[in-house]
From TrEMBL:
Name recorded for this polypeptide: Glycosyltransferase RgtA/B/C/D-like domain-containing protein
Lineage: superkingdom: Bacteria
Annotated transmembrane regions: 12-30, 87-107, 136-154, 169-193, 205-227, 256-276, 288-305, 348-370
Keywords: Membrane, Transmembrane, Transmembrane helix
Length: 503
């Protein structure tokens, strides 16, 4: 079912206003949240705004920033005189609020009852994980808004997929915000190929290909010329999985736990709807694009698990609103039945109100017990460690010195010094070293010396000054301080050369 476009009803307007006010109120306690990834993006944006290129370290063209559209928007704000962090936070907050309106539009095109559309929108506006990342200045809210807008476009018209140009353009832009969106785009194009059984299907495929080919294809061409590669460096850094089948299952279980913590009620509702009304909930055979949301919510976690990617809640936000949409859509079909009358409609609204209350209650519980405390604790820890020491390096490090660190955002942004990325994200030469020895061994043995000789090194370990105890080259390491899980050292490479030279 695709509901024709019509003016917003009173209940839909109330739902939209309530959703926007609820999200804005819940974002307020998170307004000061910090993330090292934000400073990573701000470093790129600062150099881009100053006309120094899309680079983290000046003079090093490394495809380390996988969110070029987001960085470009921040750079525009900085070029106009805005503070980078403030610009990023405002843009993220606007995108978060926009996702509420887009979610309502998606509900209006796929749900029959206006009251259920409004209830679903309010429930989405309280999602704890969306709120958790709504004001950090990261690209996630914009990626969510673009993915939702693409699904709203694909459901527009009498049949799914009637707006391939709009869908392709939105998801092409999403690819420039989060690299996972490329996977969504590929899945959609594969289904378009399957549907290309007649002239109309071929036309949809051709029109669907054009916008992403122009938008994302242009970026790929630029990245090949500018960086020398089509792929972000983060995709070249593999995460070793000791027991691969067991580790992948554990990875999937962790992702299920993250989604279940915020959307367990939606999962139960979806499961019940499929159990009691499965045949009517599944997509129709004549249009395989209807399978896309179902495939997407399963395929992205599977992709993360296959890569061993260290997933946190924000990485799953591209599937969470789609999962909620499927839960509401399947539940409405179940509640209304094949012949919905006034009584069934009234019952559906009552059941929808109960579902919305349970979903909001679960989200607010997670918000109060985990999302807000976690955000505050992590922000304070970052401010007292990497931000503080980034500023220290900016004041005390010699002009020509560099710093090796496993997290490079705040260190690079606040110090103004070149950074050697021990995790390999912006230092490609670290990738083979990490594959052979792992991060801990590479740092303990100062193996990164083959990549560069920084004057300072940041160690991430639970025990302060652990590197000064376990490194075979402890004589050349001078502890400077410790904060949180990080310890900071100066390296004397002349002593290292003496210790490592053959006797």
């Amino acid at each position: 079912m695709s509901v024709p476009a019509s003016p917003l009803t009173r209940v839909e307007r109330l739902g939209l206003v309530a959703g926007l006010l609820l999200m804005a109120a819940l974002m307020w306690p998170l307004r000061g949240m910090l993330s090292d990834d934000t400073f990573f993006q701000l470093q790129y944006a600062r150099h881009l705004a100053a006309g120094q290129g899309l680079v983290f370290n000046l003079g090093e063209r490394v495809y380390g920033c996988a969110t070029p559209l987001w960085v470009g928007l921040i750079a525009d704000g900085m070029a106009l005189g805005g503070d980078g962090l403030t610009v990023a936070r405002v843009l993220a907050a606007i995108a978060s609020l926009a996702s509420v309106g887009i979610f309502l539009q998606l509900m209006r095109r796929t749900l029959e009852l206006p009251a259920l559309r409004a209830l679903a929108t309010v429930a989405w506006s309280a999602n704890a994980w969306m709120l958790r990342w709504s004001t950090a200045g990261l690209e996630t809210p914009l990626a969510v808004a673009l993915v939702l807008a693409g699904f709203a476009a694909i459901t527009e018209g009498k049949t799914w997929g009637a707006r391939p140009i709009r869908t392709g353009a939105l998801w092409g832009l999403a690819c420039l915000v989060r690299p996972e969106a490329v996977f969504l785009l590929v899945l959609w194009l594969m289904l378009l190929i399957v549907d290309a059984q007649n002239r109309a299907g071929v036309r949809r495929l051709a029109f669907g290909l054009m916008p992403p080919a122009l938008i994302y294809g242009s970026w790929l061409g630029f990245s090949r010329l500018y960086f020398g590669t089509f792929w972000p460096q983060v995709l070249s850094v593999t995460v070793p999985l000791a027991d691969r089948p067991a580790a992948r299952l554990a990875h999937l279980a962790r992702q299920a736990g993250i989604v279940g913590a915020s959307d367990g009620v939606a999962l139960v509702a979806l499961g019940l709807a499929l159990l009691f009304d499965g045949p009517r909930s599944w997509p129709r055979r004549e249009n395989t694009q209807r399978w896309l949301p179902w495939v997407w919510v399963a395929a992205l976690p599977a992709l993360f698990a296959s890569r061993g990617f260290p997933v946190v809640s924000r990485h799953l936000l591209l599937v969470i609103p789609v999962l909620e949409w499927l839960a509401w859509r399947a539940s409405e079909r179940w509640w209304l039945g094949p012949e919905p009358g006034p009584r069934r409609r009234a019952q559906a609204v009552m059941l929808g109100a109960a579902l919305a209350i349970l979903m909001i209650a679960q989200s607010l519980t997670l918000y109060a017990t985990a999302a807000v405390p976690q955000a505050i604790a992590e922000s304070r820890a970052l401010e007292g460690s990497l931000v503080k020491w980034g500023r220290w390096f900016g004041r005390h490090a010699p002009p020509a010195s560099s710093i090796a660190s496993p997290e490079v955002g705040a260190i690079g942004f606040f110090s103004g010094h070149p950074v050697l990325d021990l995790s390999g994200g912006i230092t490609p030469a670290m990738a083979p070293l990490l594959e052979r020895e792992g991060l801990e061994q590479a740092v303990a043995g100062l193996r990164f010396e083959s990549v560069g000789r920084p004057m300072f090194v940041v160690e991430r370990n639970g025990a302060p000054y652990d590197l000064a105890r376990r490194s075979p080259y402890r004589e050349c390491i001078t502890p400077l301080g410790a904060a949180g899980p990080y310890s900071f050292y100066r390296i004397d490479w002349s002593i290292f050369d003496r210790l490592s030279s053959p006797r």
